[in-house]
Amino acid sequence: MTNQTSFIFDTELHLVVLTGIKVTTLVGLCAELHNVPASSIFLHTHREYLAHDFQRSNHANDFARWISTALHEEALAEKLAAIDLLSFTTVESLREALINTVDEYLGALDRPSPECRSEEAFHFCRSRNFVLPTGLVAESVDDFFEKMRDLSSASLYFHFFEARLRLGRRTNDFSRWLT
Length: 179
Known about the structure:
Elements: E1 7-23, H1 26-35, H2 38-46, H3 62-69, H4 74-81, H5 91-108, E2 122-138, H6 141-148, H7 153-167, H8 173-178
Helix pairs in contact: 1-5, 2-5, 3-4
């Protein structure tokens, strides 16, 4: 460990808010992916990591799940679910990958884009995040691993996922502190 300062464990609370934007087609989805706030992209791609549902679906993000269940476009759903979220250091690069994947699929589609019923529309949400201290502070590597036992899944999520994209880093808070 090269950095001898303490590690302060934080956690995060999410307030999920409807944006008022809804789509019923792939064309509409692609158009709105360009415009929605970055917090919406992050929420719809990462919230599964915080879910306490032990019967997870085959699709690890909201876009893939909706495309599979409402539009019945399983091939596209699988492509979106296969996007490696850890390969991105910014939400904007993730947004671009989502848009490119849907665009490519639409370009190769030899029929009109499917449309779901209005009650099955995809509703974009965004997240307002509040970072809070947990009260846990590690003074050494041994202390760090001892404190890890008391962390909530929200705190782990914050330091693993949020920190990378928030700061545009290729690694997480824990790895940075431990090196």
